[in-house]
Design brief:
The chain is α+β, with helices and mostly antiparallel strands. The protein is built from four helices and twelve strands; from the N terminus they run E-E-E-E-H-E-E-E-E-E-E-E-E-H-H-H. A four-stranded antiparallel β-sheet has the order 1-2-3-4. The protein has a four-stranded antiparallel β-sheet with strand order 5-6-7-8, with no helix packed on it. A four-stranded antiparallel β-sheet has the order 9-10-11-12.
């Protein structure tokens, strides 16, 4: 990995061993490119705990998991941390063992917070999704139930039938599945050359969103830019780098030349 890509994020580099990789210490790095977390098996970006020798990476949330956690959408439920997907069946490749995150709707393939009583599952990063995001007067609320279709996929439920969580505008005019928002970014990354070192969130295009969907003129264009900043903020949390929220917001809300 090129040294030019590394960003100094602390004068004191953090090193620590982890139960999932006891062979070597993992060192806190910040490379401005995507990676796959070897804990939860989900996409990551920016800061990660890494072993260069073994090409092993962990989200901060996977490096320092809580033994238990809870979420307001699941009142009275306790989630325990598991380093592998809880199995319902002892047979390998049994479909009963397939699980999905109840937040983003994507498959559970590694580290997970699981409610044994109710069967709920949350990816480590998904539990950090903000309940409310507000930028320049535009407000989006995180909801576990919606009454309208997603502005991306034009459906209420996800392809796998999971309800999933959505961000809904205060005006109730715009709904975005967390699942669709993340899939959009992953698909955008696929269109970049593999050796490209500038896969920053601020460079990502949002082809599904068209300016005419948000009205015409200056107000419509401004609202579109705010929505784009909000979507990037959602993805920043899912990728394990909430600090990108500040960066993506600043870039999108800069005055147009």
């Amino acid at each position: 990995m090129s040294r030019e890509l590394e960003v100094v994020i602390s004068t004191k580099v953090t090193k620590k061993t982890h139960f999932s990789h006891p062979e070597h210490e993992l060192e806190l790095k910040n490379y401005q490119k995507p990676y796959c977390c070897d804990g939860c098996k989900e996409q990551g970006y920016g800061p990660r705990y890494r072993c260069e020798l073994c090409d092993f990476d962990l989200h901060k949330e996977c490096m320092f998991p809580s033994l238990t956690t809870s979420h307001e959408f699941f009142q009275g439920s306790t989630f325990k941390f598991f380093n592998q997907t809880p199995a319902k069946c002892s047979k390998r490749n049994c479909k009963e063992n397939e699980r999905c995150c109840d937040a983003c709707g994507m498959d559970i393939n590694g580290f997970v917070y699981h409610c044994e009583e109710k069967g709920w599952d949350l990816h480590p990063c998904c539990r950090n999704l903000e309940k409310e995001i507000e930028m320049d007067g535009v407000n989006f609320q995180l909801c576990n139930k919606v009454s309208k279709k997603c502005s991306f996929c034009k459906k209420k439920k996800l392809p796998n039938g999971v309800q999933g969580w959505s961000y809904v505008s205060k005006s109730d005019n715009y709904h975005f599945h967390v699942y669709c928002t993340m899939k959009m970014v992953v698909e955008s990354w696929k269109n970049w050359p593999k050796d490209n070192n500038c896969l920053a969130l601020e460079n990502l295009e949002l082809p599904v969103l068209q300016a005419n969907s948000f009205g015409s003129g200056g107000k419509g264009g401004k609202f579109l830019r705010i929505v784009m900043a909000i979507l990037r903020s959602i993805v920043a949390v899912l990728l394990g780098d909430p600090t990108l929220i500040i960066l993506s917001t600043a870039i999108e809300l800069l005055p147009l030349p």
